[in-house]
Design goal:
Helix content is about 60%, strand content about 10%. With about 210 residues, it is of the alpha+beta class. The chain has three domains: about 30 residues; about 55 residues, no CATH class; about 80 residues, 2-Layer Sandwich (TATA-Binding Protein). The longest helix is centred in the N-terminal third of the chain and has 69 residues. The chain is flat. It starts with a helix and ends with a helix.
Length: about 210
């Protein structure tokens, strides 16, 4: 009787054990597939977030480029410096780029470079400044009704070209629209006060007549 019970019990236990193993295997496959699906979803979410952030950054950079370059704010372009193989870029508003160490304007870096130059020279800034000759500069703001391309208005483009031709390499002409106001800014630098003032007024008067 005992042997008979044993013969019956062993197959039943074996079948139960096999059933448990089978269930565990099925459960493992289910859990594994579920985890893989969740992992794929998380990965796709991360990729989507990265792409959205990249688009946002690209959009912000584009807006910044339009603000600082296309709207005429005084910014030194590192791209132009590379084209000219220039190591130093700057203008009156204080934006200075030292291409050997940076690609954007940095006031602290400019101050440190100036202090370093003073230390190496062992001279005061008032004396070192004498090596630079400041040209007379004239700036006139002209109220305008619109902001068309200067090159499409012959009278304005000719006035600018004439001034540039007269100055040659001894001066420069900068004509641009304000990025925040309905104004056109005319700036001329030249070797003498008289010539600088006259050329700036001629360009400003032409702009005033055509689009003011």
């Amino acid at each position: 009787m005992v042997v008979c019970i044993g013969l019956v019990t062993v197959p039943v236990l074996a079948l139960g054990f096999i059933s448990i193993l089978t269930s565990m295997n099925v459960m493992d496959k289910f859990v594994g597939a579920h985890l893989q699906e969740q992992s794929l979803m998380i990965t796709n979410d991360i990729k989507t977030a990265i792409e959205l952030n990249q688009r946002k950054v690209s959009s912000n950079l584009k807006v910044a480029h339009e603000i600082f370059y296309e709207q005429g704010n005084p910014v030194v372009s590192p791209d132009e410096m590379l084209e000219m193989d220039a190591v130093l870029g700057g203008e009156d508003s204080g934006h200075m780029i030292f291409r050997d160490v940076h690609t954007t304007g940095d006031g602290i870096l400019a101050a440190l470079r100036l202090l370093g130059a003073l230390q190496r020279a062992g001279k005061p800034l008032s004396e070192l400044a004498k090596v630079m000759t400041l040209f007379p500069q004239k700036l006139i703001n002209v109220d305008v009704k619109a902001k068309p391309d200067f090159m499409r208005i012959p009278e304005i483009s000719h006035a600018i070209a004439r001034a540039e031709g007269l100055l040659g390499e001894k001066g420069r002409v900068l004509v641009r629209y304000s990025g925040t106001q309905n104004k056109c800014r005319v700036m001329v630098e030249g070797p003498t006060e008289e010539q600088t003032d006259a050329l700036c007024r001629q360009i400003a008067a032409t702009i005033q007549r055509m689009i003011g």
